[in-house]
TrEMBL record, chain B:
Name of the molecule in the record: Type III-B CRISPR-associated protein Cas10/Cmr2
InterPro entries: Cas10-Cmr2_palm2, Cmr2_N, CRISPR-assoc_Cmr2_N, CRISPR-assoc_prot_Cmr2, GGDEF_dom, Rev_trsase/Diguanyl_cyclase
NCBIfam families found in the cross-reference section: cas_TM1794_Cmr2
Occurrences of domain GGDEF (ranges): 319-458
Top-level taxon: Bacteria
UniProt keywords, alphabetically: Antiviral defense, Nucleotide-binding
GO molecular function, one term: nucleotide binding
Organism in which the protein naturally occurs: Cystobacter ferrugineus
Keyword Nucleotide-binding: yes
An example Gene Ontology biological process: defense response to virus
Gene3D superfamilies: 3.30.70.270, CRISPR-Cas system, Cmr2 subunit, D1 domain, cysteine cluster (3.30.70.2220)
UniProtKB/TrEMBL annotation, chain C:
Taxonomic superkingdom: Bacteria
InterPro entries: CRISPR-assoc_protein_Cmr3 (IPR019117)
Native source species: Cystobacter ferrugineus
Pfam families for the chain: Cas_Cmr3
UniProt name for this protein: CRISPR-associated protein Crm3
Amino acid sequence: MSMETRPYLLHALSPLHAGTGRSVGIIDLPIARLRATNIPFIPGSSIKGVLREARRGLPEGEWEALFGPLRKVSGAEGDEAWEGDHAGALVVGDARLVALPVRSFVGTFALVSSPLLLELARRDLKGLEGVPERLKRVEGPLARVGKGNVTVAPEHGKLFLEDLDLDVQEEPAVEAWARFLARALPEEEELMRERFVVVDDETMSFLLETATQVDTRVRIDSTTGSVAEGALWQEESLPAETLLVGVLAAGPSLRQKTPLGAGDVLNRALRETAWLQLGGKATVGRGRCRMAAWPGPSKESRR
Amino acid sequence: MSSHLLLMSLGPVQDFIAQARRTRDLWFGSHVLSVLSQKAALAARELRAELVFPALLDEKDPSPSVPNKLLVLVREGEPRTVARAAREAARAHLLHWGMEVWEKHRQLVDDQARKTAEEQLDTLLEFHAAWSAFSTAEDYPEALRRAEDALAARRRLRAFTPWAHQRGGIHKSSLDGARESVLGQGERRGGKWERFRIGRREQLDALGLLKRTGGEPGQFVPVPTIGLAAYTALAKETRPAELAALARECEALGREGWLTRVDAGGKAWVDDFPFDAQVLLPGRWNTHLKEQCLDRERAERFGDTFVRPLLRALGEPFPYVACLVADGDRMGETLRALAPRGSAAHQTLSRALSGFATEARRILQQRHRGVLVYAGGDDVLGFVCLPDALRCAAELYQAFASAMKEALAGSGVPPPTLSVGLGVGHVLESLGDLLTLGRQAEGLAKGEDRDGFALLMRLHSSREYKWRARWPEHPVEALEAAVSLREQGRLPLTKVREVRTLLRRMPSRRAALEDEASWARLLSNELQRVLARVELGSAEAGLTPSEVGLRLENQRTWAELHAHVEAWAERMSLAEVLARAKPRSRGATGGES
Amino acid sequence: MNTARFALLPRDGLFCKDGRGWYTSDVGRSHSYAWPPPSTLRGALRAVWGQRALQVRGARAPSAEEWEQATQGVSLGRMLSLRRPLEEPFAPRHRMWPTPADALVVGGRVRRLLPRPHPEVHTLGTEDDDALEALWRPMAPAGKPKPPLPFWTEESLVGWLRGQAPSSPGVTGPERRVDVRVTLNAASQTAEPGMLYQAEVLEMLDGEEREWALGLECTHPGEASGFPWGPVGLGGKRRLALAEPVQAELFTAPRELPDRSPGLRLILATPAHFRRGWLPDGLEREEHEGRPCWMGELPGVEGRVVLRAALVNRPMELSTWDMARGKPRPTRRLVPAGSTYFFERVDGRPFTALKTLWLAAWGSDHEEGLGRVLPGSWNPNEEDT
């Protein structure tokens, strides 16, 4: 039995920042990005931790089979093998950006993607039915949209994103992509279809740097009630409505007396939409997101 | 009868030093190399070889450091015999030293591993030598060139043999990942395990054991203590009672074996707080003391009663430290240029470099709050607290310049310069990584045209900032001016960010532009506008580009202008970190925007 | 026996921890190999095979012997480093090679290091070894060499094997990123104070929309087709690597390879494991032309040869994990990839079948993909001018 994979969609409901916590000496807290390409991502390890919490409802044995038993002590001390210890059957891959909401002069915001982002997503989605074709790369700056996109300024036939104005071309493949992504979140179909835009890769890399949310944050000293000295920082986050794609992979359960095939493991991990709280406490209204899978047949267990 | 010029090199250097988990591993590893070089040089002198590089050798004290490349004159006898004697002296010393430590700390080691340990000690040293004959003073430069070429070529073959004495099934050293651990199995509690801070899951090979236990615990200043030196100094000045109470408690914990008192070893600044200062970091006193097996409640009580009062008065310490790496520029060229003046000229230069090494130690440890790890010839490696780092770098540069000027006076050879890099990282970063940061900074400082200074910071947010300038451009003054702009609160950080965003909206540096001049005009107009705009509620007047250190008029091309503005933004971000690194009492105004 | 040929595409970057473990600093920090050693890849493939084989048999917890037996037939053949534009299928032009040790970048140009005898200047090494000191040495061109870039393109390498210096100094390897993670306390959902983990990750996607991958030839017992059947867990924390089938042509020798040469130059494409460390197997100490030397026969090479020169960097210390026994294996000291050896035939005749040496295996542990060589021409009389 080898590993099976299944893609998932992550939809931000409030600004997302999966970072390194805060500590003194931080001036800015950037979001995690791939270093070479600047593409934002959320580490699979962060997602796995919160998914584990979200799936507490599973029977104890299955829960342990999926995620592995909890370590009794954290740190080096807890790093000893013990009787009954086993690896969790579930592997959570990083979630990579597929569409970024960007302010639009018309229609409030557009969900912006690019051929590179879609190509990377396409690899993860391979095996699902109806994955749209690769979108050709084009010379920019140019925005490609589907029919009836609400973010195109009707009188100009242009798209105004942040302070960019982009020529617009209609292309059916763009709509196909929007519809396909929305299959994981059917209630958002209209939103995605009306706002999905594919810009050229160069324009996208500009937006990746400029269209994230940056807030200035302070820490209040609990004893004085004023701003703690040196405790001011700029925190970057992925805005609400951001879409990311990742994959889950699983092998068969390694837990004694809990036999689950790889497909069973994935079914349990993705049974219904999971509501996740990423990046620590929700006190500042951040980090809410949901994780959903595409319905229908995917490559189920092959023996 | 002809003489020989014999060139010898001992290694490994950089990798060996970088294999360090605790501060003491680093200091002692560097010390070991210096002693081995010293033993080799002494053995050569024993056989009546004349030392050229280093020219001076203190038989008792190999500090600051003996360089790992030795140049000697063999006027009589066989150079091969001299080289071999030098090699064997170093090798035998290491084996003896390592096994001495082994015998002394039998509680820590596994008896079955003796053969493994001996092999590890016996095979560490890398030795290469080359020699060339010369008969007259005129031949000396050519002989030196031949020996240098041969040594460089010979070092392209690093012969090695396989390990013969491994036991298998044993974890590898946490320091190098290759050599088998020689530590004993089973429970690690109390006694020497704690005194030498050997962690629960840590593994040490025979060299790691030598590094860890060769010196006395407390002989080495922990990196957090260096990083937080300005903070503890301020605590001593403004909150003497609280600091004294904390120190008394640390002393008490020390008597029970939980903490080790640091021996200042002539570094007066260490006496402000002679303990591992990571206990001052929120979230660390717990972890740190728990690692020493102190129970949780007591660790928490320690923090609440003794550390928190200081944090309330002075804020949290800024937990970063600078790794300083300096290296003389074009030293090989200088040596070759000097060669026609014979070995005496080389010896004069060597003595000047030894003098500089001593001066480097004074600059780092007495003039500033830092610790010298290594100073061999023109190479300097050390750590210094962030608020002192800039001035320390500048003084080193000056000291090198004047030592070289004096040594080369009248020779017609231009004095070499010193490139200095400061790599800044978190005080709890692995020492190998801090060293890497320092070396990267040094590489950046050197650049293509040498004579440079560079500052490189890696913050825990995984953001990296770097800036480089040549010494004639007065980099330290430029950074200090930027720091004071931030401290006075005159330049809000939001403006720096705005400038960065502005740059991204302009053509790239490499863009081929037909109308460079109009783009340049546009950019500088925009910059003036951004700087001049006055923030709501601020009584301050706006700023001009020159007031903030932007020299827009000096840039000739679009690429230059773009690079200049980009470097400026980077410098301002670095200045912000430097401003925050200066500890202040509560109530003093900070540079917040 | 069956041979599967595929490329592994690590989805979330590569993280192949070296022997140092996690506890290398006061905060958790792991270090990864600059590029995965072939043995790590074979280990991952054995794991895939073993899980399947034992699953079919219904054995839950295999013994060390069962595991060993079930998986020992899985061996790695030729292994390639690859880099391609995202949309292209893998082809030989995407092959990347370790930078040869006989190349030096001085003054912005790639220069060839050409060994020659230098009887007038003597040398001594770490051990007394007159045959080693009698080896020929290259004279480096004047000027300070730049540190070499880790990889060369196929085009550069093929020219180099023919004796031509490339115009490009090489290719930087995959971008490295240090990921900093905090440990979250499950109950409070806050970061555990003082608990940070840092891991070095190699990113497979570069800034020019090209991706790095590993090309593998893997033989295995049995009929199973489609091996490895799905993604492979690779390196620490079981990162996913997707498998993509490739053509056999990807591994074949380039047409422009030289076939005849007065001397033979062998460059290691993967690290090699020799019985005596740096010295290739098959050579013995003898006398030649009145001087001590190493002489003998090499696998696949015509005639008796004499070793003229060797350019070898410090050993790569390979510490692998014995999955079945749950214990570390002894450390092997390997000759690093890129190391270069120069030979002449004892009878003075030229070598006439260099092409047959393309990615031939040398030394021991072939089944782990170690010891693959690249044949190059060499004129022993040529000197740097």
